[in-house]
Amino acid sequence: MPPTMICTLLKMCSGKSMGHVQEYLKKIFKLKTIKCDVCMDVMTGVDDYLTDHMVDIQAKISGFCKRLPSPISTKCTDIIIPEFKELFPKFIKTELSPGNVCKLLHICSNHMPSKELHSVNKIK
């Protein structure tokens, strides 16, 4: 049964006010799309920031490794740093991609963002 018929049968709206219901539903959908757009823009900025600061992150990991006791410190530096260099960029582009994160946060569904807000400045 179409929404217009249900609304009329329940005497909740007349033909004139049905337009308001449809406008309200359009606004709700647009709001969800805007939230998705904002999430995508923010996560794209985070993605860019992580990519641009990978050397800094690597230095922090290296500093942590150096604070460990002697035999563990060397293994940490020899194993974790090369793995980080190889895997972290791939991880950012796949697991931490803006689309993945926004879907995991339940902000975006399977629909694509509307691209209306992609003029938001990226985090630098």
TrEMBL record:
Keywords: Disulfide bond. It comes from the Eukaryota. Residues 32-112 form the Saposin B-type domain. The keyword DNA damage does not apply. Gene3D superfamilies: Saposin-like. The lineage of its organism: Eukaryota, Metazoa, Spiralia, Lophotrochozoa, Brachiopoda. PANTHER family: SAPOSIN-RELATED. This is Shell matrix protein.
